[in-house]
Amino acid sequence: MDNTQYRLEDSNGSVVGFGFTEHNRVSNILLESHLTIKSGCDCAENAEGRYNLGSKMFCAGGEPGVSPCLGDSGGGFVIEINGTFYLRGLVSFSAKGQDTPCDTSKYTVFTNVYKYRAWIARFITRRTWPNTLQKCGHDSFNEQSVCNDTELHEHSFLLLGQKKGITLLSFVTGIELKVANTAGLLDLDFDCTSGRLYWTEFGKQQMLSAKYDGTDVKPILNGISPEGIAVDWISRRIYYVNRAQNTLEVASLENSDTRAVLFKGFNSLQKSLSIHTEANCSG
């Protein structure tokens, strides 16, 4: 993203994709459309009442017969500035033709990526540049803030769960840290965005949590018999088996009182859970 390009009108860019062609079929080769961003008034006039352009959108059009089409949705609108290409928009939608999947005489509508720069910056986990961003403060964050909400906790470590305790072994420093003493450890998982561990112990009707260094130990679920825990650090949820009720349940990591039953009649022997996400903590 280019943070300096506030004005969009009359900027030229391009979109590539394998969307439908004038022959009403998906292209076998990667095609490119060169488009010019239009003013809000031009967009409204061209739309002829078919849609209202939102504050976080823009429209663009090109030569007659040239337009992104069905199958190009989500593709990037990029602008070249001094030899560098910047992502400025994402294909949102285009008008449908009378007998064709798209009307190339109408402008294409894009999501304005710049409007979401703060949200994007908050969740980027790569270590190349978030270190230079100020950490987001929940009391000061607003729509215009550009900050890093991913606390860059140590990611290169091994968690060793034993019956009587949890140990963290850092691959970076080589330090072995006893995180917690336990009375019969059952299950263990971690949340890489908040830097916290979650575990259950035999005979305790609660789930416990602590920071990576073992401080701030606190119960997050009480009055149940949780086993087989799995943390979804992206959606901020934790899944577990309630042994007493034979149910598979989910709770919010932000508010553990917010919980729901997913499956009933869950066999008490089936308690191993794992979460698959589309990203990982190390970026």
From TrEMBL:
SMART domains: LY (SM00135). It holds the Pfam family Trypsin. Residues 1-125 form the Peptidase S1 domain. GO terms for biological process: proteolysis. PROSITE patterns: TRYPSIN_DOM (PS50240). Transmembrane segments: none annotated. One of its GO terms (molecular function) is serine-type endopeptidase activity. PANTHER family: GH08193P-RELATED, PTHR24260. Belongs to the peptidase S1 family. CLIP subfamily. This is AGAP008193-PA-like protein. It comes from Anopheles sinensis.
